[in-house]
Write a structure and sequence with these properties.
The complex is a heterodimer.
Chain A (H helix, E strand, L loop, with lengths): L9 H10 L4 H11 L3 H8 L4 H21 L8 H22 L7 H4 L5 H12 L3 H8 L4 H12 L3 H8 L4 H20 L4 H12 L3
Chain B lengths: L1 H9 L5 H13 L1 H63 L4 H15 L12 H10 L3 H9 L4 H13 L3 H12 L9 H11 L3 H13 L5 H8 L1
Classes of the chains: A mainly alpha, B mainly alpha.
Chain lengths: 209, 227
């Protein structure tokens, strides 16, 4: 029964997001709602469809949340300005990719952020040459725990948090387990086989506890 | 182990020496670069899944809010009319001044601050109470709204009362008064206070009589007002 139309301050939202706990999602959703009028503006400014602008905005919010959580957003600019800049870049990226008909994984740019500028495009090119669909299919063959650990890693959870969840002694145990999952995934990916006939054996082979 | 080096680099856990090794290998070792591409691609595919899920959730909520817009306007107009009616009743019954004063004093002395647990881990309830005590009633209201307990409902109603949003406070205290799990249910008592604040003196007094006759939460306070 949310009947007030309160707008939390940016500081309130950032504090709530960083604090974590069961209200984290609530604050994240409030951040999304606070600036979602950007979507309508972008449809005029960038001449893109509303649904395309909406997806770019969701991506910009997810990126901003990652930056708030990992400390990359340092508060040097206002949060609104920060989100707007990311959102504009996402819209421009979208237009560029549509023009070049490039195969598109939305999250590639985000994931490659830590690399030096001069090497980012080379790795992006290598990724373009990979078979994304095959990799997705192989990921679904991983055991439940591996899939969960990889998802948490992509969501920005730390290995310490995963260790706490699974009762591991230390963060490096969670990291080692996650990397073993990645190694196994790579083995699957490099092996050519028909998933439908091998799923059972593969599943049995890769559960990591 | 090369994956460990890559992972530490991407998670910004690598030492300066490891960073140099990583960047050098990335330039000169094709197999290593392909491993970095595999690592990044896996993470990107997982992130895309998350993005699609969050996008669906956020878009759905936005659509729902658009549908809710009209009823909110209607509620707003109805609230304004009720408040105007409340003012009329207040002006008509000049003898209500003293009782209002008593209730106002009670609010100032007893409802201005909610008790904080000094050693508690900061959960939603404590956060809501902090907003309330800082007089950020609207923020507190939303926090309590997300916690589904009778205690949070009581505090949510008080947040609306303190924000002088009497229509909402009444709705919440009505709901609270019907809760049969609470031993000391003050729902009807707070409803009376809200109505008094809203200028509905006669209805408020009826409620206070019921609080005493039904031995409900707050009955000792109402008795003390009559002394």
């Amino acid at each position: 029964m949310s009947i007030f139309t309160t707008k939390f301050s940016d500081l309130d939202l950032i504090t709530g997001i960083i604090a974590g706990g069961n209200l984290k999602r609530n604050f994240e959703n409030k951040l999304y709602n606070k600036y979602n009028y950007f979507i309508k503006e972008a449809t005029f400014k960038h001449k893109i469809e509303s649904e395309e602008a909406s997806m770019a905005y969701s991506d910009a919010i997810l990126t901003s949340l990652e930056h708030i959580n990992n400390g990359r957003f340092e508060g040097r600019s206002e949060l609104k300005t920060y989100i707007y800049q990311i959102f504009s870049n996402k819209c421009v990226d979208f237009l560029r990719r549509r023009a070049t008909k490039e195969k598109y994984i939305s999250s590639i740019d985000n994931v490659l952020e830590p690399l030096p500028d001069n090497q980012r495009s080379a790795i992006a090119q290598l990724i373009q040459n990979q078979d994304h669909e095959q990799l997705k299919a192989r990921m679904s063959l991983l055991g439940e725990r591996c899939q969960h650990l990889l998802r948490r890693w992509s969501e920005g959870f730390t290995d310490k948090e995963s260790a706490d969840e699974y009762g591991y002694n230390a963060a490096n145990v969670a990291q080692t387990t996650r990397l073993r999952c990645l190694e196994k995934l790579r083995e699957f990916y490099m092996t050519k086989f028909e998933p439908s006939t091998n799923i059972k054996n593969e599943r049995n082979g890769i559960e990591i506890n | 182990m090369e994956l460990k080096l890559i992972d530490d680099y991407f998670l910004q856990q690598a030492s300066d020496a490891e960073k140099i090794v990583f960047e050098e290998k990335l330039k000169t070792d094709k197999e290593f670069a392909e491993l970095v591409a595999f690592y990044s691609q896996t993470k990107a595919i997982e992130r895309d899944k998350i993005l699609n899920e969050r996008h669906a959730e956020w878009s759905k909520n936005t659509v729902n809010k658009q549908f809710n817009f009209f009823p909110k306007i209607v509620i707003g107009i109805a609230a304004s009319l009720l408040i105007l009616a409340g003012f009329w009743v207040f002006n008509f019954n000049n003898n209500s001044v003293d009782k209002n004063l008593v209730v106002n004093n009670y609010i100032d002395q007893n409802l201005a601050l909610l008790p904080l647990k000094m050693d508690a881990v900061e959960d939603g309830m404590e956060l809501g109470k902090k907003y309330y005590n800082d007089k950020k009633y609207r923020e507190a209201f939303e926090i309590f709204d997300s916690i589904k307990t009778p205690q949070a409902l009581e505090y949510q109603g008080l947040s609306a009362l303190m924000a002088k949003d009497y229509l909402r406070a009444e709705a919440i205290f009505e709901q609270l008064s019907q809760n049969t799990e609470l031993l000391n249910n003050k729902g009807k008592f707070y409803l009376g206070i809200t109505k008094m604040q809203n200028g509905q003196k006669e209805e408020a007094e009826k409620l206070f009589v019921e609080v005493i006759s039904e031995n409900l939460g707050g009955n000792n306070i109402v008795k003390s007002w009559k002394e």
